[in-house]
Write a structure and sequence with these properties.
Layout (H helix, E strand, L loop, with lengths): L1 H18 L21 H4 L14 H4 L10 E10 L5 E12 L3 E11 L3 E2 L12 E2 L2 E13 L3 E13 L4 E15 L5 E11 L10 E5 L10 E5 L10 E12 L3 E12 L4 E11 L3 E11 L12 E11 L7 E9 L7 E9 L1
Antiparallel strand pairs: 1-2, 1-18, 2-3, 3-6, 4-5, 6-7, 7-8, 8-9, 9-12, 10-11, 12-13, 13-14, 14-15, 15-16, 16-17, 17-18
Length: about 350
């Protein structure tokens, strides 16, 4: 088991060094930034820093290795009010279910809601009276496996689509992760997650086509020719997350979890953060975190998610014996600029 863990750990570090290694001067040069949005309330309350301890369907967004730690079946739906005042929302849903004693398969989807955007043209800059809304959609399928309740590994493939009526781009992103649990009560947890490594994307379609008069009309006949512009390719926002946590038990069922996380971003500044979570008998939990940028670059723009985060969860048994549960999660994250992001999640565990 230890040999397997160290093999996977070495592989992830080697691959991440080759694929994620970048510099902050490339900030803003990646696309598909919606891959960095976390819609799930529990992990969002910790600023998405629960790489080592995340479990269940939301692990498909943070560290896929944690998916296999569900009991039997888990379903989650969530709504995120992004950057309050900007009019953006993300809706997501996921289902995860056990396959055998130690494996789990999960499916996750999410979409961005931009609202109605007025259509403007060169001749009508004030608007034509029409509206449009971009379609940003993601669909991920992941599998995770746990060895002897100590080591979990997993991988996920995610399809990414961005489109308007006459222009679109699509790509494939791959996530991989590992979690290690140790201690008398599984107090110590270590997690590594490599995310959003995949194919470059490029926009194409009729929206990039323009019609211009023929530059050399034959016989004096003027007619139009369609010219197709090719969109430049852009990379996905790859990142490597390293997390560690330790649980301090108060009585038998209550604990305080302290955690730390480091994020190496290929196209922006690296980030480091700390957080804590208190759980009361697995029925109620409160959490909070703080994240900040590290390093310097020629581009001194601050990441939008820095500063404080906070959240709370309630677990309600919905059957005798407590085997089936309903979970409610809320999280708030400070943003710069705008007025913060709010996450609302509803979970069902069977």
């Amino acid at each position: 088991m230890r040999y397997t863990f160290y093999t996977v750990l070495t592989f992830l570090i080697f691959v991440s060094t080759a694929l994620v290694a970048g510099n902050p001067d490339r900030q803003g040069q990646a696309g598909a930034s919606e891959l960095l949005i976390n819609p799930w309330g529990r992990s969002a309350g910790l600023h998405s820093m629960s790489t080592s301890s995340v479990m269940g369907v939301e692990a498909m967004r943070i560290n896929i290795a944690g998916l296999s730690r569900i009991e039997n079946l888990e379903i989650g739906i969530t709504n995120t009010n992004l950057y309050s005042g900007a009019g953006l929302q993300m809706n997501a849903g996921a289902i995860g279910f056990k396959m055998g004693k130690s494996g789990a398969l999960g499916i996750e989807f999410s979409s961005l809601n931009f609202g109605d955007i007025p259509v403007t043209t060169t001749n009508q800059p004030a608007g034509t009276g029409g509206f449009f809304s971009p379609s940003f959609f993601q669909l991920g399928v992941g599998y995770s496996l746990t060895y002897a309740n100590k080591i979990s590994v997993g991988a996920l493939v995610r399809y990414v689509s961005e489109s308007l009526q006459d222009i679109s781009a699509s790509g494939i992103a791959i996530d991989a992760g590992v979690q290690y649990v140790s201690g008398e009560n599984d107090n110590f947890k270590l997690g590594i997650a490599l995310k959003n490594v995949g194919t470059p994307m490029a926009f194409g379609g009729e929206g990039l086509t323009v019609r211009r008069p023929n530059p050399t009309p034959d016989g004096g006949v003027v007619y139009e020719i369609a010219f197709n512009s090719r969109g430049a390719e852009f990379e996905l926002p790859s990142s490597l997350n390293l997390g560690v946590s330790y649980d301090f038990y108060v009585a038998e069922e209550n604990y305080i979890r302290a955690l730390a996380n480091f994020t190496s971003n290929a196209f922006s500044k690296d980030q480091i953060g700390f957080g804590a979570e208190f759980s009361f008998r697995n029925l109620f939990a409160v959490r909070g975190g703080y994240k900040l940028d590290v390093g310097h670059s020629d581009v001194e723009a601050q990441s939008i998610y820095t500063g404080f985060s906070a959240g709370a969860s309630v677990e309600v048994p919905i059957s005798s014996g407590g085997a089936n549960k309903l979970g409610l999660d809320y999280a708030y994250r400070t943003t710069n600029p705008f007025k913060g992001t709010h996450n609302f999640t509803l979970r069902f565990a069977f």
